[in-house]
């Protein structure tokens, strides 16, 4: 069992990028990034592996243009039913419930630069998010 305390921390183990296809902004992504619906977004899905090589979480990120350094972020915790591709990657059943951490990174003026969904299997994670100090 792992504990997530910082939704913005670098993953310390190996990972594999599984998808980099651009995507149109859905209504939700447009709101999170402050763009219009249908805008073309850069996209990346990364499968993060634990030290034993087992899938620990999936991180799907979306952004406009080139990635830029951020100065702050927000993280919101919820749950989601896994789609077929997510369930397969995590070794779980389709429609199984997983934690979903929605992380949005901001520039120094508070504008969103990037948003991500961190999908964490409930049987492998405890979530203990702490406020920034």
TrEMBL record:
SUPFAM superfamilies: Chorismate lyase-like. It comes from the Bacteria. InterPro entries: Chorismate_lyase_/UTRA_dom_sf. Residues 1-21 are annotated as: Disordered. This is UbiC transcription regulator-associated domain-containing protein.
């Amino acid at each position: 069992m792992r504990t997530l305390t910082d939704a913005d921390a670098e993953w310390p183990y190996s990972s594999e990028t599984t998808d980099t296809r651009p995507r149109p902004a859905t209504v939700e992504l447009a709101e999170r990034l402050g763009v219009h619906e249908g805008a073309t977004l850069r996209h990346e899905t990364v499968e993060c592996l634990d030290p034993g090589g087992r899938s620990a979480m999936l991180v799907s990120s979306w952004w406009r243009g080139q990635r830029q350094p951020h100065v702050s972020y927000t993280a919101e915790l919820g749950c989601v039913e896994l789609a077929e591709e997510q369930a397969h990657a995590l070794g779980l059943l389709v429609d199984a419930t997983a934690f979903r951490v929605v992380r949005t990174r901001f520039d120094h003026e508070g504008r969103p630069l990037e948003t991500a969904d961190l999908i964490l299997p409930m049987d492998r994670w405890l979530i203990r998010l702490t406020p920034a100090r």
